[in-house]
Design goal:
six-stranded mixed beta sheet, Dimethylsulfoxide Reductase, domain 2, 30% helix, Barwin-like endoglucanases, binds ligand MGD, globular, binds molybdenum atom, single chain, binds iron/sulfur cluster
Length: 681
Amino acid sequence: MIESRTVVCSHNCPDSCSIKVGVEEGRVVSILGDPDHPVTRGFLCGKVNRYQERIYSPLRVQVPQRRIGRKGEGRFASISWDEALDEIAARFKQVIAAHGAEAILPYSYSGNIGIIGSYGGHRLFHRMGATRLKRTICTGSAVAGIRATVGDHTGKDLEELADARLILVWGMNLVTTHIHAMPFIKAARAKGARLVVIDTYRNGTARQADWFVQVRPGTDAALALGMMRVIIDENLHDQAFIDRYTHGFQDLAQACRDYTPQHVQAITGVPADDVLRLARDYAREPAAMIRLGVGLSRHSHGGMTMRTITCLPALTGSWENRGGGLVLFTPEHYWQDTDFMTRPTPDDPPARTLNMVRLGEALTEVQDPRVMAMFVYGSNPAAVVPEQARVHQGLAREDLFLVVHEQTFTDTTDFADIVLPATTFFEHDDVQTSYSHLYAQVSRAAIAPLGESRPNQWVFNALAQRMGYDDPFFRETYETLIPKLLRKDALIEAGFDWEGFMAGRPTRLPSFPYLYRERLTTDSGRFELYSERMAARGMPGAPAFMPSTEGHVDNALKARYPLQLVAPPAQHFLNSSFGNTQTSPRLTGEPRIKMHPADAARRGLDDGAPVRAFNDRGECYLALQVTEDVQPGVTVAEGVWWPKVHRNRKGINALTSAELTDMGGGARFHDGLIEVEAASG
Ligand SMILES: Nc1nc2c(c(=O)[nH]1)N[C@H]1C(S)=C(S)[C@@H](COP(=O)(O)OP(=O)(O)OC[C@H]3O[C@@H](n4cnc5c(=O)[nH]c(N)nc54)[C@H](O)[C@@H]3O)O[C@H]1N2
Ligand SMILES: Nc1nc2c(c(=O)[nH]1)N[C@H]1C(S)=C(S)[C@@H](COP(=O)(O)OP(=O)(O)OC[C@H]3O[C@@H](n4cnc5c(=O)[nH]c(N)nc54)[C@H](O)[C@@H]3O)O[C@H]1N2
Ligand code: SF4
Ligand SMILES: [Mo]
């Protein structure tokens, strides 16, 4: 008999789909999108439709492993959980005694975005006094940037897209990275809305657009300033809204003075007439929605770009209209009650913080103390972190004790001393919210853990016990934690169906689309077109275009490495996840790099040729794809393929920079410079 269960997809995807699972004799036999979830709407992405491939992958870690080969070889022998945990606790105690607890580095990110999955480990490492990890690789600069303008008001509800009349998708490849936005856009278009995509290359979303505006990477702030100049010059701004809800209009008007359409064309490559048209179309449409992507923020001045674009709807007052305003993320975090898991307590030892983007430096250069032990869970740093050569060099250190809790053998586990088997979201419980929609949902295990795999929380509790920590937190289980993770009383007061939520139904969180009418969390309580706080930090207080420090500008580096690399996600992978399935790599083909025909001809390279992309940070072997989808001077490599798939075992992040962005400590995945040549041999 087939039983029906419901789980929530916990991959790092904005959609947080509700999934109907058919289970027969303890095995998953069918996977379908939940037809009753207002955003999932009965369909899933291709990756998760075939999730059996990932649950039952031959590469699944099923039993704890101890290294028997050299670091990086990935040769292991099975051991018991008791042996594994005893050894980890003993080694951690040795490290603490010899070097201090800061010599231990926890490393986790987004393999599991369930609330417990992402935050459940913090308490253990805070209690130890381990180094704290600054988890900014993904949204750090995007959030810091838009906060400067709007405070915590990160946007309207996804569902309002259906009522927009003009949709600007800006730096986001929705058809790949947020497919459940598409039905809302389709509904809007059925009512006559127009879709404009502003991107650096003709991605899948741009192909579906009414108008594709192609910009040079890292120059969008100039485009936005040009639009604002036109809007102010032609009196298309909403003075009443500006007077009531914004701060610093005169500074903004001054800041965009120089950005004539011609000047914007020279910087961005967008024809002057298009700058004019875009500004007018945008300002004249009351229900104009900007769907901002994080792609824009992955540049040296990504924070400033986000901050600048976010001024647009405050200028036109489109926030006031249904279907207008801006969306980056939902305010779901407001409803989470997770401080007891995430915050250090006054009793915890003080500890330094290291940024996850700079892992290579953390493992190879940082001293006092040196990182001597590392515990990785929910992340695959050997694949996803920039300056990969240094990351691998650090992970390969014989004196580094590396534990990896993983579902699957990866490039990271290849370096591990101990690998612990982790459950998938089909095998453990959690609570999930979404960073694009407003439904919170409890996810209950549909099947028993595969082999001896265990959920994160089980492992943290078992380790805490062996470390001798007896705080009550380390006796919490999924069962006891789940009811505590949302602000129950406040939610019930706001009309949230708590009973239904606890029973597993996707339940809508209250939203605040008109927060600015009360007070924003900026210093002035208003939309900040000028920010004293930023000025005090030595940055421009008004919105500004700042040329990239590596890409875009003509500098000495550009003479050696004339091509800019943009490295966004691929359809059938989720960052580095799904490399262990049969279908995702097959459908993605091979690791490719897109190049304009003129750039290819100049280098004598043909479509399909094996090439070596390189810069001072490293090299990566790929197949060349010659296409006019990219502009001259820009290359695009979609997807984080596992490094071991590439010749030389170095993936695309061998080329990306670990320098941080201007705000929020983010990563610069889209603004490094490279050169490409024919691969020898
Ligand atoms: N299938 C799939 N879905 C995913 C993911 C995945 O790996 N695969 N990853 C998930 C995660 S963790 C995240 S954070 C999101 C990320 O998803 P998105 O928000 O879509 O962000 P990015 O993928 O970084 O970039 C998206 C687009 O930004 C463009 N871009 C880059 N630089 C610039 C620029 O300077 N100007 C403009 N206008 N455009 C620019 C790129 O060309 C790309 O088309 O997707 C999530 N969804
Ligand atoms: N070149 C390039 N690099 C990128 C990006 C890009 O667009 N281009 N995107 C960046 C972005 S936006 C992000 S968010 C990061 C994401 O980087 P990561 O957070 O490392 O995400 P994944 O690559 O999905 O790897 C997550 C790993 O966690 C494991 N896992 C899943 N669930 C669990 C669990 O419950 N417990 C444990 N212990 N393990 C689990 C999975 O098997 C998987 O191997 O990558 C960044 N790197
Ligand atoms: S990866 Fe995204 S689209 Fe696919 S099932 Fe998960 S939440 Fe839905
Ligand atoms: Mo991300």
